[in-house]
Amino acid sequence: MELKSVMNRYGLKQKIFSIAPLFGLIALVVCFLAAATAKDLNIAYSMKNILNQSVVVAVIATGAIFIYTLGSFDISLGASACVSALVGGMVYNATGSVTLMFLTCVGVAVAIALINSVLASVFNLPVFVTTVAMLSVLNAVVLMLININGTGSQIAVPTDAVAGLNTTWFKLLVLVLFFAVCLFVFDFTKIGRLQKFLGGNPVCAKLSGINNKRLAIIAFVMSGIAVGLGSFLSITYAPTLTKNTASSVGMDVIISIVFGGMPVSGGARSRIYAAVVGAFSMTFLNQIMVMFNLNSGIGQMVKAVIFLIVVSLAMSNQRNKEILPR
Q1: Residue 76: which domain range?
Q2: How many domains does the chain have?
């Protein structure tokens, strides 16, 4: 009876902790709507801006969940998105085909992800090490691509070419469809279950005969598809591409995933919805601070404090649990 009571208490605590980020998002939305109404702002226009700012990070973070579930993280995602967008833009300027531009964005991002997965899985290098190295390489490639283009500063896709895709419904459709695919793979297939097991206890997973290299490659491919979709959406929103395109995405993904309640250790408590909840929470928080005229420095400090609080709560929850989920 005592063990059952402990399990019930632990289960209730886990459920509360898992849905807390969702309530946090709802609270931020309510605060935003109240502040926007008080300041007589155009709420529809503001919500459109929030979607534009959130959707790229939400899509890329959703794919990155597969890597984070394994207990790893990729800091080269922003640079990968920039390279994919630049190459996609160059392909459009050479062919005039939006379809080829889309396929190029996804193909380049997946190729970069596969290189990362090969370095991490086949050569048994830590993911952090490989992505740090890849970040430096990709930043150099960005400068090279811009110089090849001839202007030395940007690669521009005609606005008219992507104007029909720069709509709220198209972006929501991409996010919803990709999220649905990831949700199915993550929660309803063997691949998702094995990735959670591997992230929760890699030693036990190895002794059970689980192919960790195959799972890592799949995780990177899913992340690569997300980066490709995100880079294409970046082009539709801002068709003039520079070295700063998607420059903050890598850090935004990390913050969004943590804001969404994803445990930094990955494993069985990983949740695919953490990416979307975190991305929109971060954007609503930014907009609220802008409405109250808080400068960027104060805004960064606020986000840093919230980030530390969320991580501390997650780590405290991990340390204090009475039964290990692994």
Answers
A1: 55-273
A2: 1
